[in-house]
Amino acid sequence: MEEFDTAAPVKSPSKVMTIAIVAVLTLVAGGGGWLVGAMLAPPPPKEQVEATKDTAPNATGEEGVPKIATEANGVVQLDPITTNLAYPSENWIRLEVALQFDGVPDPAMAEQIHQDIAAYLKTVSLQQIQGPRGFQYLRDDIQERVDLRSDGRVTNVMFRTFVIQ
């Protein structure tokens, strides 16, 4: 007696079935991600959302809100300094600095310090001020120049913007 294999050959799943399984798994994963996201960061309460819809009349800072950098506070905002670097000369630097005076500010001294910082920046190369350590060296150098120029009347140099292009 001869025995024949009567078992049917095993069929591989069709492409349609594979696409359907992948689509269902994608929907389950997306729904799970949405659920976890909603649990970790729930939406804000309605009261908070409604409170932020109306802007205050002084939200722009123009109406009734005093500026921090005023001569009454002993702070003088210097004009922005824009100059090219020593090397490479194609690179430009823009620096906005405010000076905090000990006592009454001296606008003439602030202008001299402004000119001194501008002249110093023209001697700096890009390699000297790259990275956090280079920026710290630049801050220290400018602070030292300001201390020498002001004879200690300026207590703090505040960097407002620093851009290299």
UniProtKB/TrEMBL annotation:
Subcellular localization: Cell inner membrane; Cell membrane
Keywords associated with the record: Cell inner membrane, Cell membrane, Cell projection, Chemotaxis, Cilium, Flagellar rotation, Flagellum, Membrane, Transmembrane, Transmembrane helix
Region ranges (Disordered): 44-63
One GO cellular component, as annotated: bacterial-type flagellum basal body
Membrane spanning stretches: 16-36
Keyword Acetylation: no
Membrane-topology annotation of the record: Single-pass membrane protein
Cross-referenced InterPro entries: FliL
Domain of life (superkingdom): Bacteria
GO BP terms in the entry: bacterial-type flagellum-dependent cell motility; chemotaxis
Protein family per UniProt: Belongs to the FliL family.
Function: Controls the rotational direction of flagella during chemotaxis.
The protein's name: Flagellar protein FliL
Organism: Ensifer canadensis
